[in-house]
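FIELD: query
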Amino acid sequence: MDKWLSHPTSLKIISLVIGILLWAVVHFDSEKSPNTVASLTETKVIDAVKVEATGLDDKNYALRVIEPSTIRLTVRGTASNLVFATPDDFQVTVDVSGAKEGRQVLPVTVSLPRGIERIGVEPSVVTVELEKMVTKEFEVQITTEGQPANNYKLGEPIVKPNNRVHITLPEDRMDDVGFVGANISVEGEEDTVNEKKLKVNVLDKDGNEMNDAQINPSVVEVEVPITKPFKKLPLQLGLTGKMPDGLAISSFQPSVDQVTIYGPQEMLDRYDFYDGLSIDLSKLKQSGTMELNIPPEDGIASVDPNKVTVDYTVVPAATKVLPQLKVGLIGLSDGLKAKLVTPESGMLDLPIQGAPNMLKDVGVQDVQLIADLSGLGPGSHVVPVEIHLPRFIEDHLDGPLSVTVEITDASHPPDAGQTTGKADSGASTGDAASGTGSQTGGAALSGGGETAQGNDQQQAVQPGEPNEQTGQETVPSGGPNGQAAHTDAAVEGSEGTGGMSADAGTGTSTDAGGSTASGG
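FIELD: result
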């Protein structure tokens, strides 16, 4: 027996039996009925349970009032069920699906957690008031914030698909609407703001958002034009290279001759024409059409159009010779005079080539031959000749063209034996009676193409007196039309070099090139 009592399993069984007996003793009450012995339920009062409306037709009605908005609820359940139930588990609703406009009294419905029963509801009915909904059309107002870049100008915002929306509100609140629209930022924008989607807001007259407003559509697409200053300019196409041997351009027609550029005004003011495009003539071997992009230069926002199409015709080249073109001298330093040594006449023949239809219209007046004497001092110099021709006309030379120029110091007086001022000296003399041999207008009298730095007009010189004033050669820069420059050769009156002769009877002097000046 002692062995059995000391066994662990026996001890567990005995402990369980004793525990059951003790529980029965504690809960047994001989004065009460068996049904109440094991009763553990409690009663609980829940104040201020909110009443929610269900079944509302919010397209036609707005719920304005529920009175009272909360009720007092009495429930019963076990202590554990009441403890673990949350406030959200107790729901009180009123069904307004069948309600009409105005005030009416409706019963409430209570929903409780499982294991809890309702004892009482105070009150069991509530008063509801429904307001009829109305819809009104409003214009969408778009307000911009900030400033575009470069002081560009803002245009009027555009709302797509249109600038109208429908607002639905209770009838008694419709008059409170103060603003229907949206805000958009344009700070630092350089281009038109496109396809920006914005949510439409409804504000009352005090600037407060009306959250109960129904908006259709609630999102709109907005475009804000940003206008840039613009300027129209001639379009210049640059040409590089030379046409392939034996070929020439007979027609060259771009689709546009001017473009419009957009950008800050200070940048536009720097442009008088728009270039930057070049065409390599060496690649044009047959007639055709080419398309060129017109990129915006630095500081320019855009160019319109951004492409140009050029139609051109290539034909076999023809040649011809332009005879006796005068070589102009430019860039001579002060105090120096220059004379063409080779060619002595100051004239050159120039072979040119081009399309026959263009070549036939090119004359002497369309060509410039320029020798630049900049930086040259006294002495003999071989100077390259710059040839300026009309567009699509080329020279037909075997090599570079050059001339030999003799530069002397104009301030150094000539030798006494060079001029005597007398008629029989072989130099220039005037009429002894009139005592003058004047030249005006700076005409070219030196057959050798001599030029000197000095005044533009030759003063009258008495026979035998040296002339210390010289004329200055002037060679205009010419223009894009390729007009040849006119050279005013320098003249020395009584100190001429033998290129001027004088008639003692008439006082008329004649240069080697055929120019005349009257002395009397």
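FIELD: remark
The first strand starts at residue 41 and ends at 54.
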